[in-house]
Specification:
Helix content of chain A: 25-40%
Distance between the termini of chain B: 26 Å
Number of strands of chain B: 4
Oligomer: heterodimer
Order of helices and strands of chain A: EEEEHEEHEHHHEHEHEEHEHEEHEH
Number of strands of chain A: 15
CATH superfamily of the largest domain in chain A: P-loop containing nucleotide triphosphate hydrolases
Largest interface: A-B, 26 and 20 residues
Largest sheet of chain A: 6 strands, mixed
Number of domains of chain B: 2
Distance between the termini of chain A: 26 Å
Strand content of chain A: 15-25%
Structural class of chain B: mainly alpha
Order of helices and strands of chain B: HHEHEHEHEHHHHHHHHHHH
CATH class of the largest domain in chain A: Alpha Beta
Radius of gyration of chain A: 22 Å
Structural class of chain A: alpha/beta
Chain lengths: 369, 389
Amino acid sequence: MTMSMISARLRREDFLPPSQGPSSLGGPIMNPETVPMWTESPRAPVEQAAQGEENPERVEALLRCQDLRKKFAERTAVDGISFQLAPGEIYGLLGPNGAGKTTTIKMVCGLLRPDTGSIMLNGHSAVNELAARSMVGYVPQDVALYPDLTASENLAFLGRLYRLGGTLLQDRIAEALELTDLTDRRNDRVDSFSGGMKRRLNIAAGLLHHPKLLVLDEPTVGVDPQSRHAILERVQSLGRSGMSVLYTTHYMEEAERVCDRVGIIDQGRLIAEGTRRELVARLGERDRIDLSASGDLEELAAACRTVTGVVEAAAGNDCVHLIADDGRHVLPAVLEAVNRAGVSVSSVEVKEADLEAVFLHLTGTALRE
Amino acid sequence: MPAPLEIAGKDLRQRLRDRSAIVIGLVAPLVIAALMSIAFKGADTFHYTLGVVDTDHGPVARALEHILHKAPLSQVLTVRDIPTRQSAANDVRSSHVQAALMIPAGFSASVDGAHPLPLSTLTSVNNQIAGNITASIASSFVAQLNANRLSVVTALDAGATDAQVAQLQSAVANLQIPEQMVQRPVGSHPLKVISYYGPAMAIFFLFFTISYTARSFFVDRSTGMIERMRAAPIRPVEILLGKVLSAFVFGLFSLGVIALVTTLVFGADWGAPIAAALVCVAMVIAVVCLTALVIGLARTQRQAEGIASAVVFGLALLGGNFVFISSLPDVMKRIALFTPNGQALRAFTDLSTTGGGLHAVMTPVVAILGFSLVVGFLACLLARRAVES
């Protein structure tokens, strides 16, 4: 066996703090006209066990998506997705590229019409009513701003489309720029901004009209770690302020860090939903083992599946992901399998099960494929 | 403010910051119109210099020169005396004169004889018209002489006395050349070159608004701005309306500035202001509808630019923006009337030459608006898909 390095790191911390505040979904809806967006209030926690399971204590959800389906030619992008979002909740749609996340949120934002299903936003149909759109702040995946306009000109233009004007608009621009730490660049053209600054301004543009629901489509793709951290901080802050956030990502760490609940989406279907605890609990006491390797990874995965105690094995990018009943116990047998497969392993990592492990368990494939 | 106005205002702000838009919309049409005006300067009136080699110096030669110096020929040509045939040939070759007329020695004396000497002309290949006119003048003069000779001979054969013959010679000497060529415009005023090419170039560069606006739309779509606008509480048609509204305002501004500058600086005559403004508005409406059609037809920025280029140069060629419609073959003249720019140029030509008002442009304006209606209808069918896709 060729093994340049073996490291085993065990992490047992939980990413989410315990829920606080009222237990129902009927938390107060903040008035977007008057409440500053950084005012913090107790989050309205959400406890929902499984997809489609109704909570009898549930009060009116802010967003209710029911049986959404969307086909493009012969390809089914979204296949019967249903989920709900409470006021003040941060809900993450987690899935690999092409899973249907963006199609789903475009339907929520009224940019795509679902073939079937309904989307109700605070009692309004997001499919047919323009009024619903004024409650949504959409932050697209790619930076959508005019590079030849200044930051404040971009925000002013977009703000006016939401019927903001006069001093209210100026106040909102100042507020959004302050929230995204761009106040000192307000009069600079966007094409002079760094990638991270553009991303932050992209988010600021979605916040101007104080939406009830902020929809963020993979806002950290291609962003440097510092800007990524700043963006995630802002999203958490917005959630604490009472704004509902629908957040799509294919980064498991982000979903675990910022989302109250996560819906795991794959091939257009919502295959699991719940808090991180609920989702991970599906795996019981199982661990996740990642083998960083080069060579025939499919063969390595197949070899690992023969090891007693290994529940799932899937080849990813330069890595084979395993789910095992007891990671430390099965590790020697796994290393023997590696040896038999004749591949070169550079590192081995044993971790507590996380959302990526849940995804692997549910789909048999790695999240980042 | 309504969303279309917001979008149009933003687009106009971006356009005014874009130097290429200013160059294409304002500078280029003015420069090209001025260059064409200079290039065709004098083409609306004809005048040339005629070299005359008089080696006769007799009374008939003097009579011919007298005719050349007085009206109406003096309005068409200027006479320059040249001593020898060789000098005349050199001057024609070097374009110091555009044609030359040779009066041979003994020409006056030969008129009374049986074999009069011929007048001859020298013509430059670079100025056939001057040569043809000179030859016509010489032929007419000789024909007049022959008529005189014939009348005198006829009188003598009939037994006229010397006194009667002298009286007859005096009378025929006062006869004028029977045929004259006089240029008259169709209307009450001649058409100046700048009065044609001013509007022609303004309309030609107005067409570039189609390309600019369509490109702006597809750039907005590829960068996600159209999607971002659609996420706001506005309808897709409002986005398209804002885009074409900016094209309308910029197009009207461009035409207005060019009309003003060509009138004040180059002396172009666009006709009665209200009638000219009506034609401009109709023309800009046509361009706006064409813009919406290009946006509806194209699926990408590259396609939009290709279609817009085909539309711009196709219409400009067919409509007579590069050459006078009057100089086109009949079939092309008819085709030009099916283009909005052809109709607009006809309207501006009528306004400039007839001095007419609104009634003079009603037919072209209705034709342009009819064209716009058809194009606009097609655009409405196609453009919604472009915004929503």
